Amino acid sequence: MSLDSSSYLNRELSWLEFNQRVLEEAQDPSQPLLERLKFLTIVSSNLDEFFEIRVAALKQLVDNRSDVHGPDGLRPPEVLSAIRTRVLRMVADQYQLLHETLLPALAQEGIHLRPVQQLNESQSTWARELFQRDILPILTPLAVDPSHPFPQLLNKSVNLVILYSKHGHQETTRHAFVQIPRGIPRLIPLPRESSNPREFILLSELVRHFVAEVFPGMKIHGAWPTRITRNSELYIDEEEAHNLLLTIEEELQKRNRGAAVRLELTQDCPVEIETYLLGHLALTHEDVYRVTGPVNLTQLFALTESGRGLPHLHDPLFTPSLPPPLQAPGRSFEAIRQNDILLHHPYESFQPIISLLEQAAVDPQVLAIKMTLYRTSGDSPLLNALITAARNEKQVTILVELKARFDEANNIAWARKMEEAGIHVVYGLVGLKTHCKVLLIVRREESHLQSYLHLGTGNYHPRTARFYTDFSLLTCRPALTSEVASLFNVLTGMSETAHFDELLVAPFNFAPRLLELIHRESAHHRAGRPSGIFIKANALVDPEIIQSLYASSQEGVSIQLLIRGICCLRPGVPGLSENITVRSIVDRFLEHSRIYVFTNGGNPLVFLGSADLMPRNLHRRVEVVFPILDPELRRHFLEIIIPAYSSDNRKARILGQNGLSTRTPLPENTPSRRVQDEFLLRYNPNSCDIPQITPALRPVSNPVRSVNA
Question: Is residue 461 flagged as an active site residue?
Fold first, then answer.
């Protein structure tokens, strides 16, 4: 099927609409106040990465005079122009919300962000002493003159651009820069001299206020905050890199010095200063974004911690639950032998995964541990357990993905530490990122070897497991453990190919099997058998997958897509996609799990995994999408999980043909449904302080109908 460009939504503009949904959470007055501020800072953090990666790539295409265009037909200059228009509006909305709504509301709660120039006399004295004692010795002024070239301003660092002159020579002005130090908290609490302990100033404003002390004997004509975003993609030829770890370390050193792609300035910065900066950064006025406040809103995230003792400003607390089979300490292997176990994070605890590995590390019957590592925390108990296992003379093999974007340095540090402990550390296949989440434990039991398996949709990251929605499957089914063992042989270089019957593994069989499953639903529909597709993913970009979904829609197959972020499929187009609905949920927890459900003629198939529907996931990453083979667990998805996601009418947005997402107004007398609150109540009925908001989840009697609902 050949489609014209009007059948596709632009990838970058679709992503910006996702970020708009995040902004809408900050704008939502029903949200707790500090949660609104959190979402506001996430919008800025998301934009940073968008410019570092996506805008940087588009600008490179323009610089190389490339005439390439995506399936939507837009060429790089057109996309950049559309991005600027959209981002300008988004940034204006951000700062309007901050100044007109959030900061005044925080002040009413006794939380104040004070301008330095408005401090009272005692506070000003304290601020000056703090600056002179703890900050001034760290600062290094960088002059620009014939003997000092324009400095290399670091990526995303806040710098003051200074205009100064020598006393008596005011007609000759010069420029200098002062970087706001990164090793000091961006938000500084004022001394508690009153009944209000929640008053803060920004480090950048403190340095700006006293910057004249950095230039003794000079006259300061002005100091203006500026922030530069640079191209942060790593460029590595793995086939030419003799030592991948060292090569990536070298590339990381260049990340802060990549080509500039965005310049952020405050509104009061003179045009002359803007022109001066652009000339040295090889940017144009189209790359400038002026803001009415701090040039880096992400630094306000620290304010979200200021509301301790004020629970009404935060989401209700809850304690993740433990399923009964895993409540007995030290009995993980026995529990997994009894039945497959499914964990739903963050509603259910990630601790059983940690406990399983810690138990394996000291169990004398455990012979080998194999694991993939894409992202983890800096103080991960999982990695400490792996080191313990190696010291206990177990065969431990870890595949570390050194190219996990923005976690490269952390993974390099852990790789070195693990190698020092005697762990076999490998770095995967040339040209492919290893993105799957797999843990295999081999244990001697009586007269045979028994393998235990953890398969997940999320990273081995105990911290993000508290606020990402993900699934973990614990199983010892030979059909799955044998295929994972074969996968590890491929990843460690001991096998060039592997055959997978149960697992969908990219880049080997995931794409062809997925296309086959989609086409099979069309055949079922033509034969009058039950048909339907439900897919929950972060992104839908791949043109071949989109075309196959369009074809199934034209056959009459009902298709539900729950896509959190980018969606290039245009839903609801008559004759093309009228049987496809696309929804998105942005809520308290980041919807991270990927779910693939096929009605399959009345014998539904359920798959979970780490893979999105993007060319990189299908063809340039190692991904594992695994089936739910246990009938009870599969029924749980069909009767509980999928209907809950399908019924959310509080946080779900509907994607229109125009690429914009909107909330559908609730008809009168329609009960409010919020899937994340319902899951909190289902898994944690006695441990969370969730208000009465929605009815409890009710099982759906017909699993086929639940898929097509």
Answer: no
